[in-house]
Design brief:
single chain; about 400 residues; alpha+beta; Butyryl-Coa Dehydrogenase, subunit A, domain 1; Butyryl-CoA Dehydrogenase, subunit A, domain 2; Butyryl-CoA Dehydrogenase, subunit A, domain 3; 3 domains; four-stranded mixed sheet; four-stranded antiparallel sheet; about 50% helix; about 15% strand
């Protein structure tokens, strides 16, 4: 059982309300998202009407307590939403889920004033938000952030450049990380702080859009802070303790990326299976050839393993079990690599049709690749898993 304690650590429980919610999301996806897939691909934009439809049924408030304008619900509901939406249009899932990269740190570390002022409008769909942490020289290395925040009367002055910021062109609010103390080589993680920055603050500039290979419809921008004054009350968490705010946020968001990958993998499996039973070669269905049948079976095995890992991590998070930190990294790494693998397999099963943009199969591969990179690249997740193992060993030795 090492590094886990007993068999109860592997419990996964889903309630009837989760299934009812899944069906509602599936209906939304079939009716509103599926018809605009090719439009989003060609225009690199999700129709505004779809965003408004999502707001009207409360999707922006899932996982946010009702007292802050949300619909309530737990991590498992967020996982289901991420999975179902990403099965159809992952870029739209990214647009919705990135709100939680803003909301979660406020719910975990913010003041009541901050929650009332900023969480409520996001939860009710009156505002969109983004998470501005990544920089040209600091992605997975959060401690390497170079954006600075200098103390001034009544607040802080931010200067720096953020890169690959999802939702930046739509966001009304950002949570931004900045260095408030000089880097100490012996403890690089110290001296970072996090701030709420409104797009309307003087000096905030949305830079160019990055032309990345996937997620057509929601591609990232750079965000520039040029002598941006941020009020004292917009500091999130403790001064110089922003590293904790950021990495704790990612502990939760990694589960949502795992769910996004499960949705992509589900779409790849369904497309491959349907094509293999309908397409004929040598006057026989493709599925009648063992080479294809074995691939379909392998796809199903890896898909369901990914789903179980993701639901498991979400359940542990809902139970506030400390094991969820490691579980989230395991689920994120395995599920995203499975999505990339299954998307590639689906292309091969389709043959020439698999690389035709009109079939939508090659899109799954493009969309899956980013899931292995953001919220901490998978090699970073492997380091996180190993360090969690070391901490578990150390803790066990102390107890014994």
């Amino acid at each position: 059982m090492f590094p886990f304690g007993d068999v109860s650590d592997f419990k996964v429980s889903m309630e009837q309300e989760h299934e009812l919610f899944r069906k509602a999301i599936r209906q939304f996806c079939d009716e509103k998202l599926a018809p605009v897939i090719m439009e989003a691909e060609k225009t690199n934009d999700v129709p505004h009407s779809v965003i408004e439809d999502a707001k009207s049924i409360g999707l922006t408030g899932i996982g946010i307590p009702q007292e802050y304008g949300g619909q309530g619900g737990d991590m498992r509901m967020l996982v289901i939403m991420a999975e179902e939406i990403s099965r159809v249009l992952p870029s739209f899932g990214t647009m919705l889920l990135v709100n939680h990269l803003f909301v979660d740190p406020l719910m975990l570390f913010g003041t009541e004033e901050q929650k009332s002022k900023y969480v409520v409008p996001v939860a009710t769909g009156k505002a969109l938000a983004a998470h501005a942490s990544t920089e040209p020289d600091a992605g997975s290395d959060v401690a390497g952030i170079k954006t600075t925040a200098k103390k001034t009367e009544g607040g802080w002055i931010l200067n720096g450049r953020k890169a690959f910021i999802t939702n930046a062109d739509r966001a009304d609010f950002f949570i931004a990380s900045a260095r408030t103390s000089p880097i100490n080589p012996q403890s690089r993680w110290k001296g970072l702080s996090t701030f709420i920055v409104e797009k309307g603050f003087k000096g905030v500039e949305i830079g160019h859009k990055f032309d990345v290979i996937g997620l057509r419809g929601e591609q990232p921008n750079e965000v520039l802070f040029n002598d941006v004054f941020v009020p004292e009350n917009n500091l999130v968490g403790k001064l110089d303790d922003g590293f904790k705010v950021v990495v704790t946020t990612y502990d939760y968001s990694r589960i949502l990326i795992a769910a996004q990958a499960v949705g992509i993998a589900q779409a790849a499996f369904e497309m491959a299976f349907n094509y293999s039973t309908q397409r004929k070669a040598f006057e026989r269905p493709l599925a009648s050839f063992e080479g294809v049948a074995f691939k379909i079976s392998d796809m199903l095995m890896e898909l369901e393993a990914s789903r179980l890992l993701t639901y498991w991590a979400a359940y542990l998070a809902d139970q506030k079990r400390p094991e969820f930190y490691m579980a989230s990294s395991i689920a994120k790494t395995y599920s995203t690599e499975t999505a990339e693998k299954l998307a590639a397999m689906a292309i091969k099963i389709h043959g020439g049709a698999g690389v035709d943009r009109e079939t939508g199969v090659e899109r799954l591969l493009r969309d899956s690749i980013i899931t292995t990179i953001y919220e901490g690249a998978n090699d970073i997740q492997r380091l996180t898993i190993f360090r969690s193992l070391l901490r578990t060993v150390s803790k066990n030795l102390e107890v014994s």
